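Hi there, hope your week has been kind to you so far. Do you reckon you could talk me through the fold, stretch by stretch? I've dropped the whole record in just underneath, so have a look:
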Amino acid sequence: MEEVKLIRNEMKDRVQKLIAQKDTSDGKANLAKLRHGIGKKPGEMPELWDVFFNKMSPELFSKSNEPSRSEWAIYISLTMFALHQQGSSETVHCEGRSLGSAAADLMEEKTDENRERIMRRFGPVVTAKDMPELSHHIRGLVQLFKAKSVKLDYLRLAEDLYWFQDTNKRKNVQLKWGEDFYREKGEDLS
């Protein structure tokens, strides 16, 4: 549980810094670097080390030759935030907007066609088998968020991604995302 608090703190610090600097040349450069890291493994791109590893709590670092669960969670969340924030004058981070809630916000009208369109992007995220696959599918969903100006809680996303990697907790994350998707509209979408 302590590790999850560290993840939230790391994400909070990084997202606040990226938001504060988003209109500066350094901020734009950092967001661009993070976008280039989409689809890569944490640590794979040396040009991201400063944005990603610098001042990170040592407890979150990998203790093996593979990225830790914490590194994956923070990395995917940061790269998706950078994609989402690109070209937006408003901050795209919004506390309390889970992945399921944000996906529900994409439903302009409650029609079968709209639900199927959203579920083509949301379903594969929920059922992804590993982090590279999850990252790939979240990217498509974040692109929809960006196009429709839907905000997301990136701290919560990092926490959810951490638990998603735990086979004993994954079903809880999937359940929560599904509940949030349907709770937002408060009606049967079929």
Summary: The longest helix spans residues 2-20. The mean pLDDT is 92. The domain at 2-185 is CATH 1.10.520.40 (Peroxidase; domain 1).
